[in-house]
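Q: what does this look like with manganese (II) ion bound?
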Amino acid sequence: MALSPSSLANARIDGRRFWSTIERSAAIGTWRHGLNRLTLSDADKAIRDQFVEWCGGAGLAVRIDEVGNIFGRRAGRDDHLAPVLLGSHLDTQANGGRFDGIVGVLGALELVRTLNDLGHVTRRPIEIVNWTNEEGARFSPPMVASGCFAGVYERDWVYGRTADDGATLGGELVRIGYRGEVPVGGVVPDSYLELHIEQGPILDAERLQVGVVTHGYTSHGMLVEFRGETAHTGPWPMQSRRSALVAGARLVAAVDDIGWDFAHVGGKASAPRLQAWPNRAGILSEWAQVVCDVRQDDPVIAGIMAERVQRAVGEAAARAGCTCEILDRWNWGGRIFDEAMVELVRDTAASLGYSHRDVASQAGHDAYFLARICPTAMIFTPCRGGITHNDGEDATLDELIPGVNVLLHAAVARADR
Ligand code: GLV
Ligand code: MN
Ligand code: MN
């Protein structure tokens, strides 16, 4: 059934129901004040099970693809048309917040429930999705499963991503029962919309309700490996040392220096992870790996920063007498979003009477990969002080509701086309 335009225009989500869903999610994998729900962990399995149950309760047909992406489909009046896809991720960082990607997945679920309450069937089908391993916290790099869906990464390469304990992404999918049967990708959605907390301070500082995401900072990431030689920390001469840990540590500091050199233009450079082996007292390490990334609004500057990092890799290796190899590279961001979709988000926020502004995203998002295959846009909601990837991440229901209502109306506008 199609609703009259006026009853549809007045549709709003049920805030209390949405909040209780967020709270139920926050009880799965609880850690300090937030969440530690690393991808494909037991806690991730538990929230997946809960999500599948919620989808069933909302009348969605659930399917799970080979990399564990979970889709819930609401049929359209013209069900053969390409679906409008909405979602984000339910996995978190090790000291993550309860809102991060969760608002985007559970906001999409709330949207479906709202349409069910209204009895409105859109022309196109609507699908909601939870992407596997957005965070890249347990298996590097981030967003591999949305990237696989978009044809950027090979399925078997994704399966081979390995955690610290030797577990592989593919093995963990099987272990928790989420290696689905449905081939990954191959379907081009009509469009993709992702709601997310801003993960930055602008909306909160300016007391604005909605962020219209125009584009993403260009980001270049690398996984770097150093190889040296073990030796005794006492007798072994300084001149002969080849500590991979020292090479890695030099790179970590050099990357931070690059970030400071570009800080005046909003550049960011991070080396958030350094591993070494054997990494024990009394012995020099023969092996180290560093994950690093640079981000800047201007793709040219981001490219210059990435070149500086690449040079720093060689310099760090040379100073420590080690060899080096860049094992993986990834990049995303730029002016990738669809202008008409961005305008739809902006117009929807305005027509609902919400205060809003254009913003750039500085974090990685699954939307960046979806933008490679279909018209895509993002909606941001405020989060307190921009604090995120921290258990202190915070937002009130009143701060989240406008974003979910924009998602509702923008998605319906698109799905009724
Ligand atoms: C992923 O979310 C990132 O921003 O690295
Ligand atoms: Mn996220
Ligand atoms: Mn995150």
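The mean pLDDT is 98. The two ends are 15 Å apart (CA to CA).
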